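Two proteins were folded this term; both appear here.
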Amino acid sequence: MSTRHGTALVTGASSGIGAAYAGRLAAQGWDTVLVARRAQRLDDLAQRLSRATGTTVETLVADLSEPGDLARVARRAADDDIGFLLNNAGINGYGPFAGLEPELMTKVLAVNVLAVTALARAAAPGMLARGHGTLINVASQLAFAGALPPHPLPERAVYGGTKGYVVTFTRTLAAELAGTPLRIQVLCPGLTATEFHRSRGHEPVPGRDESVHEEGGMPVDRVVDSSLAALEAGEVVCVPGLGNAALIDALAEAELAIRTAARPLGR
């Protein structure tokens, strides 16, 4: 059964922000494609959403660090029913950079950078051709924490770098597509009450039941509330819990000032 909205594709949908966002979209009438590594978690969520909302829920079990799986999800993202893409999948790979396992480093880069970019590229042309669409990339407040030392923040050189890419990529893409019907957002949550910190990313957290890491954090529903409110307001950068939105404008002004001051004389 189709809906008036179309279909939303959500990566990292087996728990946390992804699962909560998928639930909210289904309640609004979106059919959903749920993407994650944990088949049982996806099946459980699909059954709950289908029963609760009457929408069509599709599952795609995929590890986005694997080229074949990423290509398969990208083909689905390019289909003409996709009107909403939430690039939420991410892994942290926290730890000292000099001791970071090369395989895990590659996985973090593949999921946090390559998959986000590839899926956005797959979905955007069709959305533009159809004259509507929403693209949300999930980054992190750690994208703005490059100069801050670890403790109490995690050791995060690669993770922070990937999330900095997501922020810059999304803001730049939004500027490129300004004036088109596409809605584009980068969502930058801080510490959130999910199980994200319970795994570095080699393998997902086991079990069928969601859990919350010991650090706690903002409830996922508040993160989704902030994202949806910012989307309606046309805000490209959403930082849940940020009380002073002028700080985002100040960031853009500082960037312009740096570029202007750094121009060679005569140009």
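Next, the second protein.
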Amino acid sequence: MERRTLGAAALAVGAVGLGCMPMNWAYSSSRQRGEESLRAVHRALDLGSSLLDTADMYGPFTNELLLGRVLKERRQDAFVSTKVGLLVGEQHIVANGRPGYVKRACDASLRRLQTDVIDLYQLHRADPEVPVEETWGAMAELVQAGKVRSLGLCAMGARGGRRSGTRLHDATIRQLQRVQQVFPVSAVQAELSVWSPEALETLLPWCEARDIGFLAAMPLGNGFLTGTLTPGQGFEPDDVRARHPRFTAEMMAANQPIVAGLRRIASRHGDGVTPAQVALAWVLAQGRHVVPVPGAKQERWVTENAGAEGVRLTAQDLTEIAELPRALGSWD
């Protein structure tokens, strides 16, 4: 697989990463199977999808434990990205950016991952009670201690909470400007997909101008852009899509033209090319510093996602995607 670099430190990763969250968190728990997920991670590494993206809150903790079983055998094949800053309670999630907590959380993640260094340590969310510079300073000390190789920031991306007249990522850019004064940012992770292209407006250009890598979260639109979901199919109560405004039966039906457009383009690229691969190829086409991180927990989806790296979209393809209808049912 083609390699791409993250940040000024030129950290090399496979062009398509693996989002590990669905293995233990946020999607239907009845379909989460540990051994199946382990095979998926091994398959990703076999194919060159070296970036494994996790977080201590996924589970919580169980996703890091699962990856640790793979890393114990194949640490040299993997680029390990995990996150800190969110605590999971019974019915709530809270931010914790206190320096002491960040350092303890890092040590705990290292133990669960069965490694002595984290390649990319990301701040999941800033703590409103702690100046972000203090949190980031503690993370920088982890780099200096040799426990972490580089630092990243997850974009805030709360659509409904932004003030009128502001752009989606204005608050994230202000955070980035602050932490850059403390220690270099190697990567920013934010949602980017055919049906959620808002990062193209300001955030991705900001990163590109500063040689900061961009990890595209949810590049398949929480599975919608794969074309495998049926309007009205319903989701289990613990599945995030059960509360997502684009996954009501009405909105899923209304957004089918987007999938139809991806399917039409896929058909021009030969047998076996899928809408999901076209959606990922579109993300890859947004810049050499962009790495999509599609979530998957089965070998077949990992294999399909990795195959997107070989799909080369034409100028006509990109124009058609740009002209697809705007997704309906957003928070805006």
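The chain has a mean pLDDT of 93. The two ends are 37 Å apart (CA to CA). These notes refer to the second protein only.
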